[in-house]
UniProtKB/TrEMBL annotation:
Designated gene of the protein: LOC101074698
PROSITE patterns: PH_DOMAIN
Organism: Takifugu rubripes
Assigned keywords, A-Z: Cytoplasm, GTPase activation, Metal-binding, Repeat, Zinc, Zinc-finger
Molecular function in Gene Ontology: GTPase activator activity; phosphatidylinositol bisphosphate binding; phosphatidylinositol-3,4,5-trisphosphate binding; zinc ion binding
Main location: cytoplasm
GO terms for cellular component: cytoplasm; plasma membrane
Domain PH per the UniProt entry, residue ranges: 98-199, 221-325
InterPro entries noted in UniProt: Arf-GAP_dual-PH_domain (IPR052589), ARFGAP/RecO (IPR037278), ArfGAP_dom_sf (IPR038508), PH-like_dom_sf (IPR011993), PH1_ADAP (IPR037849), PH2_ADAP (IPR037851), PH_domain (IPR001849)
Subcellular location(s) of the protein: Cytoplasm
Full protein name: ArfGAP with dual PH domains 1
């Protein structure tokens, strides 16, 4: 089966406080009288007692969404706690905690943009997430090492509330995979299964690290994404519009926001290492179509970008400064030593 674009699945709960969400569950799922009894329970014992019961066995790796997260994550967090009561028994957590998960996801084709059903397998024992182009294929089309794996929900970017962007490193460049599933629970279970695999991987890699140190490394949202214009290394070429993603210390640019590979990647170090983000462009540079310039100063060369609005310029500079003002960690230096401005295969 194939699809030109993700199915815009519905059925998400309304935004707002948990009480409002419980009421919506009761209204939209009359065969589940849980919400009404839950409201009575919370009224009688209070929210703290409710959490003590329904969040008693939340795994450390399980993503606890905040109000800034997408609606799907917040919906499924509520449903996992109160509808399915997943955190009252470890047996109910097997879909994402067993160390192995297999199933079908709709994956966007790299060249034609069509979404095709693909079989995915996540194996902690093998240390990989892999997918197969044919349902009965023996050899995977791609193998993604858990050590470089990341997953982040991108509903607006992908065009469905259930859209998940998976990234991993291949030959030291970033590869994007865009997937979704019609069922919200399924795609969130995949997300938390990846987090579980990453958690166990990092526990082995950093045996003395505290759990609180590992949790921020399981998955991450991008610091900033959006369109800017850029010029080439000679700074004499015309400015071209590109989609940019700032992922930790990697600044990647793409011709299209759903491209599988970046056209190039730039390492963003710290101010102690000679990195700076400055508003504006050098005076000798031919003006771009967009007037609000940014100069990224690095030890090797300067990178020149232009934003459409002053607001975008300020937001990008703030994002760059967030990274540049953060001291480099040992693994950052190791990453910088292996890093180069790469042009992945088209």
């Amino acid at each position: 089966r194939s699809s030109d674009r993700p199915k815009n699945t519905t059925g998400n709960l309304s935004e707002g406080c948990e009480i409002r969400v419980h009421t919506r569950i009761h209204n939209t799922r009359p065969h589940k009288p849980l919400a009404c009894s839950l409201l009575q329970f919370m009224d009688s014992v209070g929210n703290d007692a409710s959490k003590a019961k329904y969040e008693r066995l939340v795994p450390a790796f399980y993503y606890r969404p905040s109000h800034t997260d997408c609606t799907l994550l917040r919906d499924q967090w509520i449903r996992a706690k109160y509808e399915r009561e997943e955190f009252t028994s470890v047996e109910r957590q097997e879909p994402y905690s067993a160390g192995y998960r297999e199933g079908f996801l709709w994956k966007r084709g790299r060249d034609n943009g069509q979404y095709l059903s693909r079989r995915f397998i996540l194996s902690e024992r093998e240390g990989v997430l892999k997918y197969f182009n044919k349902h009965d294929a023996r050899e995977p089309k791609a193998m993604m090492k858990i050590g470089s794996l990341n997953a982040t929900f991108q509903p607006s970017k992908i065009g469905t509330p259930h859209g998940l962007q998976i990234t991993y490193l291949k030959d030291n460049s970033t590869r994007n995979i865009f997937v979704y599933h019609e069922e919200g629970k399924e795609i969130v279970d995949w997300f938390n299964a990846i987090r579980a695999a990453r958690f166990h991987y990092l526990q082995v890699a950093f045996p003395v690290a505290a759990v609180s140190e590992l949790l921020p490394k399981l998955t991450r949202n991008f610091i900033r994404e959006g369109y800017m214009e850029k010029t080439g290394p000679k700074q004499t070429e015309g400015f071209k519009k590109r989609w940019f993603t700032l992922d930790d210390r990697r600044l990647m640019y793409f011709k299209d926001l759903l491209d599988a590979y970046a056209r190039g990647e730039v390492f963003i170090g710290s101010k102690e290492s000679g990195y700076t983000a400055l508003p504006g462009l050098p005076p000798n540079i031919q003006s771009s179509h967009w007037q609000f310039g940014i100069t990224i100063v690095t030890p090797d060369r300067n990178f020149l970008f232009a934003c459409e609005t002053e607001r975008d310029q300020k937001h990008w500079i703030t994002a760059f400064e967030t990274v540049i003002n953060r001291p480099m960690l040992p693994q950052d230096y190791a990453g910088e030593s292996r890093f180069y401005l790469c042009v992945p295969p088209k």
